[in-house]
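**Entry details**
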Amino acid sequence: QVQLVESGGGLVQPGGSLRLSCAASGFTFSNYAMSWYRQAPGKERELVATITSAGGTTTYPQSVKGRFTISRDNAQNTYVLQMNGLNPSDTGVYYCTSLGYWGQGTQVTVSS
């Protein structure tokens, strides 16, 4: 069955960095685009990054553009969200998703 497992969340100070990983299994990973979403307390889930199947195209909303970078390793069935210049508004649960499946989420907290 399809499984998506996130890791790498935690507590970081404003201006810091975190690297989230998502390990995928149960489907042909290299055939599909992958995305990261986040959900802050009391807010709707929002898209933060998408990468195409071969990794040639990435897209970001303005809120994270220039700070977040999504990448993938199709040989390892993993993809990564590198987050730099974090600020408190980046706090939330981060999810990886593809094919309508979602991981369990990993908490990111940005606070001094």
